[in-house]
Amino acid sequence: METETNLTGLFVPLVTPFTDDLRLAPDALARLADEALLAGARGLVALGTTAEAATLTAEEKRAVVRVCAAACRAHGAPLIVGVGTNDTAAAVATLRELAERGDVTAALVPAPPYTRPGEAGTLAHFTALAEHGGLPLVVYDIPYRTAQPLSPGTLHALGHLPEVIGVKYATGAIDAATMELLGRPAPGFAVLGGDDAVISPLLAAGARGGILASANVRTADFAELISLWHRDAAGPARELGAELARLSAALFAEPNPTVIKGVLHAQGRIPSPAVRLPLLAASAEAVRRATHLSTARTRQPVAS
Interior CA angle at 192 toward 191 and 196, to 5°? Predict the structure, then answer.
């Protein structure tokens, strides 16, 4: 499969559906993948945080990638696969295994969690992955999970590595560092929003798209939001962005992806809302509130 490095648009990090007894439900995953791509997603992300990748066995991870890759092949869409570890050598090995498949477009890789190697060590880590992993990389900048902030300078340096094609930017703020990053992106380096509730202002500031867990629900509306900003339709984009921010807040009211799974189950799209420990299923009230916001309002079409 020829690598597709155009990271513009919506990428949906799919949940991993389970049965009530916590077995993988691959048929439900296949349906979710197909539905997301039919609804306007540019591509899919497998084995992200939303997929509960940390609790999947090695065989389950391979099965999830197979299912998502099949859907992406059928739709001619890119597939990004999460690779999260603080062991550089193990990450290289995983990247090589994925690269050998020939149907994975890129890997989504966070700064090494827990170890906190500093920005110089983080830069060396990503350089090693870029040089030896055999796959394009999307850096996952999410310091509230990794405890390793990345400065605009470090991201700029990473963006100049030919194998690093973008960043999922989820720092929890839109601040001066954000504007510096968006103001001077490296050529061929895409900034994708990763904080769902503030994706609209990030797009307004110049982000090319988003990797958004909330887009498991109302996929078409999140795809439309990105399209509206790209078409400079600021008024409708702000209105839709505010509405989707309320949905995202409800979906993240309890640990991700517990509420999302509750809503998908309430909609009959997955067989169970089950999650694996240490996560606990979302409360009925949180699912009720989010389900209420999960139905799209009818809007007037916007002239292009």
Answer: 140
